[in-house]
């Protein structure tokens, strides 16, 4: 076997045993896809958990919520290839990603995900492929793997930008809703090609159309700095475009991948995240990883702009690809009930934290003042006339078993990061927030055990301006995440919370 497959491998025997288990699951998943195609269930309608709001409470109702791990960027065999020498173009499955939809769902379940999303690439006339071929397979997969909520959507060919998640709400006409948006706005869908589709104005038009729909989708940018050529030297995705899109539809266009997929690439000699021109930092995109960078610049304007972590799974690294299975390495945790509507509500409103390598399995960040409190994605209102100290409690739960690499990683440090919220920036290209800093670093001596959790407490004294607080942690000794080389991703684990805001009144 290629030595590149064993970079910094600490437990070869566990790795090999795990790989055998994975191959068996893939085999059974393929068999399941064959069987279900001939099953009477395959021709029935979806087992709608629809109108989950009616069953378990409306969005905003916090009952029965828990941290639920998921992945909104997963590819199936419907990320294929197109022969444009014919009219219409001929589509061939498996040209880019190779696994059936149900295989991804089975593997997501195996690695502890409770929700996932198939996001296949577009292309000429792909909207019709999605509607007529991929969607029926998604319905079959929902029947076969009901434990995983499986959203419908795609990796949207965003006009003038790199790829984005386009997540469609779960309802009876979800397939038609995606068809409408893809056929009208995806830049690669027209045949022959239409250069007029590839403009920022078209992207804004798309977001406004999505905003006007009775059931609003979500849009999240993928691998935002993958085309960057240096630190702060951006490629397809720019600060100005993020601001313009968020201005047009703030409840639709809500964030970007903090940790992109393709994290297994170094195990086969590639660049982590497939960031070939400028690296990731601790597995995270430079826009997120740099304290006081673009993410902090957007948060400093008061934007509700969230980060996620995904697999971007195409081909598993043990088969020569660059990828982990959904949930094997990266997870996006959403505080929600196990229903489609509340998962989407959590994503829309920032009830999210992200992690790699199962370094921890829960993370709660709570800010409080004078009997009021707020947690991730929320806003704590503080009366200027009262005491303006803000108390912060950080709770995290370490992994009890072993992660996908057969290890039980340990948290070495937790950082508390704050930045001022000063309002809209006059410069739409701004990518820094000079007020953002690490205000406290905590090691094992600074937290105490409470049941299965560890608790850290800290107080921000004499808060004099609007601000936000966010938390990150790591298994490393790096004060700041270093630029990634070819080290094993399992040796470089991080988690990040989304922010809690503080508003003075």
TrEMBL record:
SUPFAM superfamilies according to UniProt: PHP domain-like (SSF89550)
Bias kind Basic and acidic residues: ranges: 1-19, 52-70
Residue ranges of the region described as Disordered: 1-22, 41-70
Signal peptide: none
UniProt superkingdom: Bacteria
Protein name (database record): Phosphoesterase
Species name: Streptosporangium subroseum
